[in-house]
Design brief:
alpha/beta, Aspartate Aminotransferase, domain 1, 2 domains, four-stranded mixed β-sheet, globular, binds pyridoxal-5'-phosphate
């Protein structure tokens, strides 16, 4: 079989940068990506046959570990009935009913094919519903790669949007206003500077795309109050937090009711799925019920819905999965905390439940500016050290560690031993 290096040589000739999503290229850690051949439980194997304990979990979906037998069996059975119909199915009704019954702040939901699409559509809906154009987002929060969301990494409060990517027209970005995470005054200033113009505030209720950054005391409550005061919608981007931090996501964990939520990752059980949902009066504005257009040839695909529903049912019916992840998170992140303080390492750990990040900076990380003080060269050393010892971490300082329910105490202790060795 070809090696990862050989595959990368072939890949770069036919796929830009050799990968279909940039972080997979391992650019920031200076390595050739490992090409993965298969995965099972908490492990992935590369094409060379090396086994890694996986702390990426396909960036979240593999909550129950890879290749969950119930999800796999449901998918195999569904495949017998055909892969796609492009027509309404009972399955779509079932999964929508299921989510609306089990998530209190979702009255109606629409399925799409990725988190990017979910956010893009939710923003259009917020604009259509309020008749306003501007969106507030936070520096360092990632909401997929639609034009108006590729703004903000780094732009300061009160500045008009400047795109982060070539190819985003200035006109698309100018209605995106950037606030500072954990800074309600920055949000208030944007509302006051743009009276009656802000359609929505979109936020990662726990930020996980600048490394893990927790919402400070009162931050999410404050956003809720500011949105109410100014007639804007509050959108929780739960693409990572949804069904992970609690079955009801960050909204349930922190007890805040958003107007709309976006989902991705976990909701598809490993298949490409996204969704957005929320209050009935807002969702009813979607076509064909209402005037806000949105569509998708493969949306609600029967195989994807089967995988998603099977995983959601498993999560909902077995709250012990969440208990296990909390315990595993305490063991791993509590252990890392002790190692960092024993080694007197100039690092900061942020974590909640099964999500966490070690930042190679001594400063508290509360927003994008503080996250960027991290020593990314030191992170790259850490990443390479761990990979060599069989631990597959996200290849960037600005990503989370994801634990699955199949990461045992013993595996976590092995991970801690390796981290301890790196720090000493
Ligand atoms: C991953 C992610 C997205 C984008 O989802 P894709 O399925 O990659 O398009 C959006 N928002 C958040 C918070 C994410 O983590």
């Amino acid at each position: 079989m070809a090696t990862s290096a050989e595959l990368m040589d072939r890949a770069v000739k036919v796929i830009p940068g050799g990968v279909n999503s940039p972080v997979r290229a391992f650019g920031s850690v200076g390595l050739t990506p490992r090409f993965i051949a298969r995965a099972d439980g908490p492990y992935v194997w590369d094409v060379e046959g090396t086994r890694y304990l996986d702390y990426v979990g396909s960036w979240g979906p593999m909550f129950l570990g890879h290749n969950n037998p119930a999800v796999r069996a449901a998918v195999q059975e569904a495949c017998e009935r055909g892969l796609s119909f492009g027509a309404a199915t009972e399955l779509e009704v079932q999964i929508a009913e299921y989510i609306c019954e089990t998530v209190p702040h979702v009255d109606m939901i629409r399925m799409v094919n990725s988190g990017t699409e979910a956010v893009m559509s939710a923003l259009r809906l917020a604009r259509g519903f309020t008749g306003r154009d501007k969106i507030v987002k936070f520096a360092g929060n990632y909401h997929g790669h639609s034009d108006c969301m590729l703004v903000a990494a780094g732009s300061g409060v009160m500045t008009a949007g400047v795109p982060d990517s070539a190819g985003v027209p200035a006109g698309c970005a100018q209605d995106t206003l950037t606030a500072t995470y954990n800074d309600l005054d920055s949000v208030r200033a944007l509302f006051e500077g743009n009276p009656g113009q802000v359609a929505a505030v979109i936020v990662e209720p726990v930020a996980a795309n600048m490394g893990v950054v927790l919402p400070g005391e009162g931050f999410l409550e404050g956003l809720r109050a500011l949105c109410d005061e100014h007639g804007a919608l509050l959108i929780f981007d739960e693409v990572i937090c949804g069904f992970r931090l609690a079955y009801g996501g960050a909204a349930a964990r922190f007890g805040i009711v958003p107007d709309l939520v976006t989902y991705g990752k976990i909701i598809g059980g490993g298949m490409p799925v996204g969704a957005f949902g929320g209050k009935r009066d807002i969702m009813q504005k979607m076509a064909p019920a209402g005037p806000v257009y949105q569509a998708g040839t493969l949306s609600g695909n029967p195989i994807a819905m089967t995988a998603g529903l099977a995983q959601l049912v498993e999560l909902h019916d077995h709250p012990e999965h969440y208990e296990r992840l909390e315990q595993a998170g305490e063991r791993l992140f509590g252990g890392i905390e002790s190692l960092l303080s024993e080694a007197n390492a100039p690092c900061t750990l942020n974590h909640v439940g099964s999500l966490g990040s070690v930042f190679f900076t001594p400063d508290a990380v509360i927003d994008y500016t503080s996250a960027k003080t991290s020593d990314t060269a030191r992170f790259a050393e850490y990443f390479r050290f761990m990979l060599e010892r069989g631990f597959y971490l996200a290849p960037s300082q600005f990503e989370a560690m994801f634990i699955s329910t199949l990461h045992t105490d013993e595996m976590i202790d092995e991970t801690l031993a390796a981290i301890g060795e790196f720090l000493s």
